[in-house]
Amino acid sequence: MKRGFNWRTGAVFVLLIYGFWAYQFRDLFTVYEQLKSNMSVNDELTLYITQAESSSLSKDTYRYYLYDARRSPDDFMAHVKDVEPIMITDDYKANAEVKDGQIYLRVRGNVYSCKNVGYSVRIHLDAAPY
């Protein structure tokens, strides 16, 4: 009996090799966020600041979110992927203050995005490159 190459076994072997290869790069596409701090803006909103680690090849980013004040920080972290950040920066010493229901942000570094949201909250941004 002549034995030849079994294509099914070869395909399974190639898929296994590809899976082991792709597993090495899993952290390049995963973003880990942890809560850094939070502060109350008013009775309706809370400002949350998270530190996002994406990979060892890139800088950590700090994301600023406005979220419902009636919800807990654990609830915010459970739904953080569904919430749009109002600002993303790489400045780990960025300062956020809330005075009279207004948010004052001071950043010395890169600001990757900053959005004015439709809430009744004014956001003041003081940004400069280093």
Structural description of this entry:
With 130 residues, the chain is α+β, with helices and mostly antiparallel strands. The chain contains two helices and eight strands, in the order αβββαβββββ. The strands form two sheets. It has a five-stranded antiparallel beta sheet. It has a three-stranded mixed beta sheet with strand order 5-6-8, with no helix packed on it. β5 and β6 (102-108) form a beta hairpin. The longest helix has 17 residues, at 7-23. It starts with 6 loop residues before the first helix and ends with a strand. The mean pLDDT is 87.
Structural topology:
Blueprint: H1 7-23, E1 32-40, E2 45-53, E3 61-68, H2 73-78, E4 87-89, E5 95-99, E6 102-108, E7 111-114, E8 123-128
Parallel strand pairs: 6-8
Antiparallel strand pairs: 1-2, 2-3, 3-4, 4-7, 5-6
Question: What is the percent of helical residues?
Answer: 10-25%
Task: Count the E strands.
Answer: 8
Q: Report the total helices.
A: 2
Point out poorly predicted stretches.
none
Strand proportion: 35-45%
**Cα distance spanning the termini:** 75 Å
Arrangement of strands in the largest sheet: 1-2-3-4-7
Biggest sheet record: 5 strands, antiparallel
Average residue pLDDT = 87
N-to-C order of helices and strands: HEEEHEEEEE
Question: Which structural category do the helix and sheet elements fall into?
Answer: alpha+beta
- Rounded Rg: 22 Å
